[in-house]
UniProtKB/TrEMBL annotation, chain A:
Pfam families: F-box_5, LRR_6, Transp_inhibit
Name this polypeptide is given: Auxin signaling F-box 2
UniProt pathway annotation: Protein modification; protein ubiquitination
InterPro entries assigned to the protein according to its UniProt record, in alphabetical order: COI1_F-box, F-box_dom, Leu-rich_rpt, Leu-rich_rpt_Cys-con_subtyp, LRR_dom_sf, Transp_inhibit
Originating organism: Arabidopsis lyrata subsp. lyrata
Alphabetical list of SMART domains matching this protein: FBOX, LRR_CC
Keywords from the UniProt entry: Auxin signaling pathway, Developmental protein, Nucleus, Ubl conjugation pathway
Major localization class: nucleus
Segments forming domain F-box: 4-45
UniProtKB/TrEMBL annotation, chain B:
Molecular function as annotated in GO: identical protein binding
Keywords for the protein's UniProt record, in alphabetical order: Auxin signaling pathway, Nucleus, Repressor, Transcription, Transcription regulation
Gene designation: IAA19
GO cellular component, one term: nucleus
Biased composition (Polar residues): 36-47
Biological function: Aux/IAA proteins are short-lived transcriptional factors that function as repressors of early auxin response genes at low auxin concentrations.
Pfam short name (any one): AUX_IAA
Domain PB1: 96-184
Name assigned to this protein: Auxin-responsive protein
PANTHER family named in the record: AUXIN-RESPONSIVE PROTEIN IAA17, AUXIN-RESPONSIVE PROTEIN IAA19
Family indicated by similarity: Belongs to the Aux/IAA family.
Annotated region described as Disordered, given as residue ranges: 36-64
Subcellular location(s) per record: Nucleus
Organism, as annotated: Arabidopsis lyrata subsp. lyrata (Lyre-leaved rock-cress)
Any GO BP: stamen filament development
């Protein structure tokens, strides 16, 4: 089988970087498995409870970079209680004990404590990169340890975390000798920032490429920061609030002009819109623009900005842009690949900010579009059919009609045909979220056509178990299925137990699944953890005489090689 | 395979004929028991109205705006984004009372409830308290002698000198306040006094 010495094969493997491909290589034969595991440096674990750190390290002793995901996706929408799990400390403790040469750690939806950050900072001499996304449980004290102890820190990237800001001096904890920063993102911190420490840090970081500031960094500080970091590629503006005096504004304009490498702009958390024009000179270079937190930027200021951004590939925006604004995007941003339109009014005001017209315009104007997240008030089948025809290359298609169960607003029909057209045309579709009025028919289409679909989010959809069965039977590549408020029950759940071995996880909440159904599943599949999350009715299920028929409020199941987890809180039953 | 648990009779999702009133639709809701606000989703209740609680049965709720806003975790916007957008919504809505107040030289915005003041004197006092600085009150009452001027942004996006229009008109149109150095005010483009809305 092997015509080459191991070193040669290993060298070839070095060129194979994607996790999927490396996993495939390891399955070819025993010898390749062995070579692959000793040369693997980066590991991605999509569910931290699918495996434990000891087994991970036994297989990959040369681990340098680890990505871990904790809570299920619906935790983003407050459907999972905070104490559910996803604790990173045991992982860090195990990694520290094993003395592996960890350099990078990326965590998503995990519970991180100051203690674990401190341990992390002290245990790995070459630690370089910390990326925390949607995590919680730590404070700026934890950040201070990272700053103080990680001598070669390259990336500190905090995205949308809940961090208790002690308003301490974590930024001044970076020693003067720390000059290696490439990424510094603290946009999600709420508290005051030591501006002097920040400016000094930026000034001594010649490699700094990505800087994302929080609200507490005002415009004049921004000007000074940009002046010391003209090499910046990715900038998150903090507070753009105060109308600057003319001198600050002039300084800012001058600094911006020098930032010729700037490609990505975000933030504007509090914005004085008419100051946006300061950025016009560099807009023609921008490939990424995130204004989704800039509630005060809309109307003509927004349009003028976008009209300068002809090279834009990624745009995240609020629906206050309106259909007309989206038409401007469609005619200007011909390179657009990813669009996200978020709702600006979450309190149900019913403003028809964007409709199907905006979506159709974008699909017609942007031939390279492959990822979309679109919140809107209304949709039609005809529009979706047109979108499918215009953009058959979608990889991710997420459409959220704000009102559950809303039909096609012109014909009053369900939106089955529209979504059917999408899955039929988009042969590379990997992720889909649908909404509006949907019957079992849409699932028939999904099962039939969505051959590459890996993640599907279902809410308020379907009529009978057939719907879920179409998906389970048809989508061979399904990895993550999450369902809420849909009438799928035990029949669908139990139809093909072996299917769940091929999937990472299944979430079902407010469906028709019963406790006895879940118990039966757990019995049939000991390699699954079937969790029932029952926060408010700890005793109700036991007392109730018809225990078996009791509907389960939230069920989360996932394949695992390490059995029941020991850290589950009392309101989580693992069957 | 057992059929129990399907409960088809409670999954009524009626499809209306074309043109039929959409209000006929029912949102199928499961038993939403009250969320324990301290242990989970405690941030969500700032923005969403309370969760419907019930016994063990499925509740059918008519498709009304009130019912919509009570669905937990809907629309599917992540809680971090929700919190941040709520901040904006709560503070920039005209007439809701809360406005942002900025002061030159102070890197932080403050927020205050205009509705809690009765008149300009009250406002002057409240601003003083907010920034711990005597001068603002004076600025409001006795404009020309002070280092600062108090201006506000009205519904139309224009900046006006505070104190000119009747109080009622002021709180209705004031979107935000700014305490500005007098030296900067001259080049600023304030709307001239006495301009009609």
């Amino acid at each position: 089988m092997n015509y080459f010495p191991d070193e040669v094969i290993e060298h070839v493997f070095d060129f194979v970087t994607s996790h999927k491909d490396r996993n495939a290589i390891s399955l070819v034969c025993k010898s390749w498995y062995k070579i692959e595991r000793f040369s693997r440096q980066k590991v991605f674990i999509g569910n931290c409870y699918a495996i434990n750190p000891e087994r991970l390290l036994r297989r990959f002793p040369c681990l340098k970079s680890l990505t871990l995901k904790g809570k299920p996706h619906f935790a983003d929408f407050n459907l999972v209680p905070h104490e559910w799990g996803g604790f990173v400390l045991p992982w860090i403790e195990a990694l520290a004990r094993s003395r592996v040469g960890l350099e990078e750690l990326r965590l998503k939806r995990m519970v991180v404590t100051d203690e674990s950050l401190e341990l992390l900072s002290r245990s790995f001499v070459n630690f370089k990169s910390l990326v925390l996304v949607s995590c919680e449980g730590f404070t700026t004290d934890g950040l201070a340890s990272i700053a103080a102890n990680c001598r070669h820190l390259r990336d500190l990237d905090l995205q949308e975390n809940e961090i208790d800001d002690h308003r301490g001096q974590w930024l001044s904890c970076f020693p003067d000798t720390c000059t290696t920063l490439v990424t510094l993102n603290f946009a999600c911190l709420e508290g005051e920032t030591n501006l002097v420490a920040l400016e000094r840090l930026v000034a001594r970081s010649p490699n700094l490429k990505s800087l994302k500031l929080n609200r507490a960094v005002p415009l004049d500080a921004l000007a000074r920061l940009m002046a010391c970091a003209p090499q910046i590629v990715d900038l998150g503006v903090g507070s753009y609030e105060n109308d600057p005096d003319s001198e600050s504004y002039m300084k800012l304009k001058a600094a911006i002009k020098k930032c010729t490498s700037l490609r990505s702009l975000s933030g504007f958390l509090e914005a004085a819109p008419h100051c946006l024009s300061a950025f016009h000179p560099i807009c023609h270079n921008l490939t990424s623009l995130n204004l989704s937190y800039a509630a005060e930027i809309h109307g003509s200021h927004l349009i003028k900005l976008i009209q300068h951004c002809k090279k834009l590939q990624r745009l995240w925006i609020l629906d206050s842009i309106g259909d007309k604004g989206l038409e401007v995007v469609a005619s200007t941003c011909k390179e657009l690949q990813e669009l996200r339109v978020f709702p600006s009014d979450l309190l149900g005001g019913g403003n028809t900010a964007v409709t199907e017209e905006g979506l159709v315009a974008i699909s017609a104007g942007c031939p390279k579009l492959h990822s979309i997240l679109y919140f809107c008030q209304q949709m039609t089948n005809a529009a979706l059919v047109t979108v499918a025809k215009n953009c058959p290359n979608f990889i991710r298609f997420r459409l959220c009609i704000l009102e559950p169960n809303k039909p096609d607003h012109v014909t009053s029909q369900p939106l089955d045909e529209g979504f059917g057209a999408i899955v039929k045309a988009c042969k590379s579709l990997r992720r889909l979220s649908h909404s509006g009025l949907l019957t079992d028919q849409v699932f028939l289409y999904i099962g039939m056509y969505a051959n590459q679909l890996e993640m599907l989010s279902i809410a308020f959809a379907g009529d009978t178990d057939k719907g879920m069965l179409y998906v389970l039977n048809g989508c061979k590549k399904m990895k993550k299925l999450e369902i809420r408020d849909s009438p799928f029950g035990d029949t669908a759940l139990l139809a093909d137990v072996s299917k769940y071995e091929t999937m990472r996880s299944l979430w079902m909440s407010s469906c028709e699944v019963t406790l006895s159904g879940c118990k039966r599943l757990a019995q049939k599949a000991p390699w699954l953890n079937v969790e029932i999350i029952n926060e408010n009715d700890n005793n109700r299920m036991e007392e109730n005489g018809h225990e078996g028929r009791q509907k389960v409020d939230k069920m989360y199941l996932y394949r695992t090689v390490v059995g029941t987890r020991m850290d589950a809180p009392p309101f989580v039953w693992i069957l | 395979m057992e059929k129990e648990g399907l409960g088809l009779e409670i999954t009524e999702l009626r499809l209306g004929l074309p043109g039929r009133d959409v209000a006929e639709k029912m949102i199928k809701k499961r038993a939403f028991t009250e969320m324990n606000m301290t242990s989970s989703g405690s941030n969500s209740d700032q923005c969403e109205s309370g969760v419907v609680s019930s016994g063990g049965d499925v509740e059918k709720v008519n498709d009304s705006p009130a019912a919509k806003s009570q669905v937990v975790g809907w629309p599917p916007v992540c809680s971090y984004r929700r919190k941040n957008s709520c901040k904006e919504a709560a503070t920039t809505k005209v007439g809701l009372g809360y406005v942002k107040v900025s002061m030159d030289g102070v890197p932080y915005l403050r927020k205050m409830d205009l509705g809690s003041s009765q008149d300009y004197d009250d406002l002057a006092f409240a601003l003083d308290k907010l920034f711990g600085f005597r001068g603002i009150g004076v600025a409001l009452k006795d404009g020309d002698n002070c280092e600062y001027v108090t201006i506000y942004e009205d519904k139309d996006g224009d900046w006006m000198l505070a104190g000119d229009v009747p109080w009622g008109m002021f709180i209705e149109s004031c979107k935000r306040l700014r305490i500005m150095r007098r030296s900067d005010a001259s080049g600023f483009g304030l709307q001239p006094r006495g301009v009609d809305e």
